[in-house]
Write a structure and sequence with these properties.
The chain has 488 residues and is of the alpha/beta class. It contains 19 helices and 18 strands. The chain has 2 domains: 271 residues, Glycogen Phosphorylase B (Rossmann fold); 190 residues, Rossmann fold, CATH 3.40.50.2000. The chain is 39% helix and 19% strand. The two termini are 22 Å apart. Bound molecules: adenosine-5'-diphosphate and alpha-D-glucopyranose (GLC).
């Protein structure tokens, strides 16, 4: 079975969030199940230099306004990657994959990700050399248009699976770009990808992918409703029987407290006391009072409305009053950045805020904190709570989406039965969040009970094997259906 991943991010080459972690880890996990999964990714600056044996394997004379090529290489982990080397679209100084140095979206993102999708469809139908996929696996709006090119392009085309990592990002652009997309008028009309007077790349994916999934069963249910459906719930309901939820795994070689190269003191479920030295080191590093008895709660997150961190600013006084400390690493919304900087200045030794993106610090926070907080208003899956489980850093999460599916609340019954792995709260508001933080501070001094929850959390299987098997089953089903329909 050969599967082509088309994605805009892939760890360790380029990452802005969880999508990169998934696109980097799932293909490797699939190899254990006999699937040859390869990744197509834009050649952003610096990405080619990270590939081993990088060489150009194909030339594409005209990719949306300029010549391009495919560069093949492998990552340090042996993942096969094709880079879409289109300098006119992706070789840009400063900024990131989606935004320029001024923090605004690149003005031609519709062309950049239409091009990625168009090349995705090209590779899917033509192959590269002798490699041709049985199934194409798309991720979010940035590659969703691949489904349109497969639907309206040369037939037969392989079946596609669209994974929705986040319905809030839909790739919506004005109708005036329609002529640039290299799609027939039927594709952009109102029974096509037209969306409230605009065009939506994600809608194209939802319409024309052979099958859909999202990254947890609860989120798969939530997006069928008006509240979380982000305007696409009506369309999603028409495809509900073709939509499933598969909880992400984590790369447990990158996230393993027993071997993590970013942390000073290695530990495991069998060597739990060694975790404490990481807390001391972290408190030193961040200028927090070095107090083993103060429950240290961390946040590692994009700072956006989705993540609910404005609620934390409101609940912070109650965490501090209960004796807790806060360490935050994040970037995004300017007001939230300023709010947490201000909180750190107002509460020296008890609140630390690092504004920025820092992968090694994310590991030190997971290792050195007692709890990791995710007060998300919605969360398709969430990865930081899974890293928290693995690091014995108890997740404190809003009861939504993948957070609801992956954490067992430390209520009385769960504590008694020894099944608790963290803390959940609902509704997602300041008061319930504050109550959850107070519960953390209440349980923390009971070392026996706390460590029991830690051990249970660390013993949870959060690797990719289970999810990979579910994806393999989907791929086989898709490939089987495609074979049956061509032989009819
Ligand atoms: P999302 O993809 O919605 O941002 P996830 O929980 O799925 O949320 O994944 C977030 C990923 O990004 C995790 O690997 C987390 O460690 C990482 N991350 C988020 N913000 C930062 C940051 N400021 N510095 C380092 N890593 C970060
Ligand atoms: C998105 C979601 C997050 C999920 C990640 C990987 O960024 O916001 O919940 O974990 O994708 O699937």
């Amino acid at each position: 079975m050969r599967v082509l991943f088309v994605t805009s991010e892939c760890y360790p080459l380029v990452k802005t969030g969880g999508l990169a972690d998934v696109a980097g880890a799932l293909p490797l996990a699939l190899a254990d199940d006999g699937v040859d999964a390869r990744v197509l990714l834009p050649a952003y600056p610096g990405v080619r230099d990270q590939l081993q044996g990088a060489r150009r394997v194909a030339t594409l004379p005209d990719v949306f306004g300029g010549p391009a090529g495919l560069v093949h290489g492998t990552t340090v982990d042996g993942l096969h990657v094709w880079l879409l080397d289109a300098p006119h679209l992706f070789a840009r100084k400063g900024g990131g994959p989606y935004t320029g140095p001024d923090g605004r979206d690149w003005p031609d993102n519709h062309v950049r990700f239409a091009a990625l999708s168009w090349v995705g469809a090209h590779v899917a139908t033509q192959g590269v050399g002798r490699w041709k996929p049985h199934v194409v696996h798309l991720h979010d709006w940035q590659s969703a248009l691949t489904a349109a090119y497969l639907r309206f392009g040369p037939q037969p085309a392989p079946p596609s699976l669209l994974t929705i990592h986040n319905l809030a990002f839909q790739g919506v652009f004005g109708l005036d770009i329609a002529a640039q997309l290299r799609l027939p008028p039927a594709a952009t009309h109102d029974d096509g990808m037209e969306y409230w007077g605009n065009l939506s790349f994600l809608k194209a994916g939802v319409l024309w992918s052979t099958r859909l999934n999202t990254v947890s069963p609860t989120y798969a249910r939530e997006i069928l409703g008006n509240e979380q459906g982000m305007g696409l719930d009506g369309l999603l309901r028409t495809r509900a029987h073709e939509l499933s939820g598969i909880v992400n795994g984590i790369d447990d070689t990158v996230w393993d407290p027993a071997t993590d190269p970013h942390i000073a003191h290695h530990y495991s479920v069998h060597k739990l006391p060694a975790k404490a030295a990481n807390k001391t080191a972290l408190q030193h590093e961040l200028g927090l009072h070095v107090r083993p008895d103060a429950p240290l709660v961390c946040v590692i997150s994009r700072l956006s409305w989705q993540k609910g961190l404005d609620l934390l600013l409101g609940a912070l006084p109650r965490l501090l009053a209960a004796g807790g400390q806060l360490a935050l690493l994040g970037s995004g919304d300017r007001d939230l950045e300023a709010g947490f900087r201000h909180a750190a200045v107002s509460h020296p030794g008890r609140v630390a805020a690092v504004v920025g993106y820092d992968e090694p610090l994310a590991h030190r926070l997971q290792a050195g904190s007692d709890a990791v907080l995710m007060p998300s208003r919605f969360e398709p899956c969430g990865l930081s709570q899974l890293y928290g489980l693995r690091y014995g850093t108890l997740p404190v999460v809003a009861r939504v989406g993948g957070l609801a599916d992956t954490v067992i609340d430390a209520n009385e019954a769960a504590l008694r039965d020894g099944v608790a792995t963290g803390f959940q709260f609902s509704p997602v508001d300041t008061d319930s969040l504050a109550v959850a933080l107070e519960r953390v501070c209440d349980l923390y001094p009971d070392r026996t009970a706390w460590q029991r929850v830690q051990r249970r959390a660390m013993s949870r299987d959060v690797g990719w094997a289970t999810a990979a098997r579910s994806y393999v089953a989907l791929y086989h089903r898709l490939a089987g259906e495609a074979a049956a329909s061509t032989s009819r």
